[in-house]
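Box 4.2: Ligand-aware structure prediction
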Amino acid sequence: MTQPLGRMNVPAGSLIGASAPDRTGIVHLGLGNFHRAHGAVYTAQAMAAAGGNWGIRGFAFSSDRIVAPMRAQDNVYSILQLTEHGTEAGVVDVHRDTGVAAQDPQAVVDAIADPAHRIVTLTISEVGYTRDPVTGRLALDHAGVAADLAAGSTPRTAVGMIARGLEKRAASGEGFAVLSCDNLQSSGDVTRAVVEEFLQAAGVSDDVLAFVSSSVSFPGAMVDRIVPKTTTEHTRLVADLLGVKDLCPVPAEDFTMWVLEDDFAGGRPAWDSAGATFSDELEAYEMVKLRLLNGSHSLIAYLGVLSGAPTIDVAWGQDFVREAVLGGITDDYLPTFTPPTGFDAEAYVSQLDDRWRNPLIGHATTQVGTDGSQKLLQRIPDAALFHLRRGRMPHHLALCTAAWIACVAPPVGFTPDPLSARIVEPARDRLASAVDGAVTVLDHVRRIMGGGFFPDALAEQEAFTARVADLLTLITRDGVRAAAADVASAR
Ligand code: CS2
């Protein structure tokens, strides 16, 4: 029988980087597959290169789906790299403690306040920042935020936990960094803004506000590694490769990238020795990633779902999807930003082709399509407004918006492919009430564009709304390929 994986049972030669010491220096919120294949791996490699007390105290946000198996195997797990050149596995041993924030939010607050900790890293996804889609500011009317602001309450939202942790930390005055590792534009500034808005709304003292403004840094970061969900097949492959039974391996592509601002008020691991890049052109890196990869990913996902493609590689294998995505990159995304100095955008796009075609990853289109109401805000409005303000229609961005609506808020009489039911869309009910009673497709789209789901600046662009409505009509009447063909002929 295959032995269970554990700290005393790490197969010889399989450790990635170094094991962490017992002392933890990093708190992580959002213990899922992405962090385990990204920040945790860089930290293991940084400790191998330069040591340091950078063990991680990891908290899953809401469920013990990953924490329970991790605990059962001393918090070690394997990374299963899936590439066309072969499959490899290695073990990561940097989490010295794990827990579930929803079960014990005070533990997160206390961990952030503990002066031994110097960084909190976040992978809480776009939804976790509890921002208002229209203003981009902290959503004070969000039920969780409102409850967290009540005096004496234990916070339940991520922003509430971070803010209360910093409030408590102000007593020691020890420098600290809050590092967002989510797909946000201006990630550092956005994170600082929501935390400070929370603290102000909570009426904390001026001393706390002064501590956060002077001794807490919020570096920006661009993170990248495609990491699908774990299946039993992954567990089987790890058993074959390593000879141990891992209950929670992380499947991942071999590509990985991390670009950060070097602004860590309490110090940091030697992540640069592990291949991370420190740069002061962070916003440009974020645009490259959020537009060329993530924006295109959403388009592949929604066109894929509407054409019955369960995974990104299957969707990408369809000519009409490739054409729409490459057209979108060329016409709608590349003109909207200046890439970082020396960055080869063409090479990046050709790498994307290799990454999306990888059949071993099995990245579900419905996983990428999940949370579109929050993800699209990073991927569509700014780029669309860039063109609309110059009198040009960003057809592919309109197509992505129409395809999203067709999947999660279809007009009456249209039933999208059954795959669409697997898309987790937190705004589904609100979208359904917004479009209830709409008489035409244009009316349907108007109610969404102007219904509090997108910034006003985009909602005011009537021509964009009309183009989304045209494309949605085509999707519902003639199918998604016809809509993509219409976009191709409009180029
Ligand atoms: C994807 C990302 O699900 C999504 O929205 O676009 O998770 C993407 O796979 C990662 O950002 C890749 O680094």
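In the box above, the bound molecule is D-mannonic acid. The pocket of D-mannonic acid is lined by residues 183, 224-226, 294, 297, 367-368, 375 (CB under 6 Å).
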